[in-house]
Amino acid sequence: MISVTLQYSGGVPVGFRCTGHAEYADPGSDIVCSAVSVLIINTMNSIEAYTDAVFEQQVDDETESGGVCFLLTKPTPEAVLLMKSLVLGLSQIREEYEEFISVALEEV
């Protein structure tokens, strides 16, 4: 199962932690893992490319957990909008595939 913890500060999404694999299908054919990965990677890349936000990120390339941590340390309105888009996308995936992804909220 994919486990996502969405981090909020004062009601604003500012980060996330994501680990695990959906195990919806065989590796390479898993649409749930692919969808979550695309949303997360695109959000991080978009924040870096299109905003002046300051952030910390950590990606675990060495283990099978697929862990990713991301935190806006100096959010901008544009970065927050991109984070809200991520939250929307993950919420919609969770509605459709709830046995393969868990989403929790955390105040930081």
What does this structure look like?
The protein has about 110 residues and is α+β, with helices and mostly antiparallel strands. It has one domain: Cysteine protease Prp (Alpha-Beta Plaits, 2-Layer Sandwich). Helices cover about 35% and strands about 35% of the residues. It has a five-stranded mixed sheet, covered by helices on one side. Helix 1 runs antiparallel to helix 2 (about 75-95). The longest helix has 20 residues, at about 30-50. The protein is globular, with a radius of gyration of 13 Å.
Helix content: 25-40%
Q: Which series of helices and strands comes N to C? A: EEHEEHE
Shape: globular
What's the CATH class label?
Alpha Beta
Number of helices: 2
Query: Uncertain runs with pLDDT below 50, 5 residues or more?
Result: none
Assembly state (oligomeric): single chain
CATH topology group: Alpha-Beta Plaits
Count every beta strand, where a strand is a DSSP E run of 2 or more residues.
5
Give the biggest sheet.
5 strands, mixed
Radius of gyration: 13 Å
Number of domains: 1
CATH superfamily: Cysteine protease Prp
The CATH architecture is 2-Layer Sandwich
> Kindly, what is the distance between the CA atoms of the first and last residues, rounded to a whole number of angstroms?
24 Å
What portion of residues belong to β-strands?
25-35%
The helix/strand class is alpha+beta
- How do the strands of the widest beta sheet line up side by side? 3-4-2-1-5
Q: What is the arithmetic mean of pLDDT?
A: 95
